[in-house]
Amino acid sequence: MPLGDASLEDVFESNYDVLIEATPTTLKSAEPAFSHIKMALETDRHVVLANKGPVAERFEELQSIADGSKGTLRFEATVGGAIPVLSTIEDINPKTVTSVKGILNGTSNFILTRMAAKNLSYSHVLSEAQELGVAEADPIFDVGGIDTALKCVIISNVLSGGGFRLSDAEVEGIQHISNHALNLADKSGLTIRLVGEATREGVNVAPMLVPKTEDLAVEGTQNIVQIATEHGGILSLAGPGAGGDPTASAIFLDLQRLIV
């Protein structure tokens, strides 16, 4: 049913099978997304979620509602864009995953890559990124590590069955990284990347030295995730981690899994 001029109440009273919740991410209360999901699940509808807020900030409440529903809650699009991070963890079995580490924000990675390649300052490259549409007018969500932390909190919740919120994460952004620091790293065959790590013990996000020959040294807006498993070693998944098309790809992956 097209939304058109219909009210939100009309939408939820319509005959639908799946709610795709893709409103902008809000923190703490995770509203209005949380209420939308709750209404859908309590009427036994499926929910495909692209909004990070509810699964980062109110994971246990959502799972409790989903457990009492005939509907299914899926949220692949909340982590890693087109990279099937959560589906891979699900297929492996979260109990056998020991940690997940990676580059999970394309804006920060673009800035660090360009700074190192052209010996430019953070402020200069940030302005370039904003002009190109790679960074928002207010970029703190990305460059401050918050976006990466939210994704890692979601992963830790999946691994642990809940218990984590953004406030539990240790977070440091890239705002204070200088091209001098990148130049020094380069002389030792290293670069600097904003790395997020999620475990059952907690979440850490910070700029880290990474060997330029390692997988984590991806460039530009690319993302990469390394899933450490008990029996299969480390699995690496890379690809576009943000944007309309990658997000839509993740939503369709969840829809396909609902059909199966």
Description of the structure:
By secondary structure, the chain is of the alpha/beta class. The chain has two domains: 67 residues, Rossmann fold (3-Layer(aba) Sandwich); 157 residues, Dihydrodipicolinate Reductase, domain 2. 41% of the residues lie in helices and 20% in strands. It has eleven helices and nine strands. The strands form two sheets. The chain has a six-stranded mixed sheet. The chain has a three-stranded parallel sheet with strand order 1-2-3, sandwiched between helices. The longest helix is centred in the C-terminal third of the chain and has 16 residues. The radius of gyration is 19 Å and the shape is globular. The chain starts with 7 loop residues before the first helix and ends with a helix. The mean pLDDT is 94.
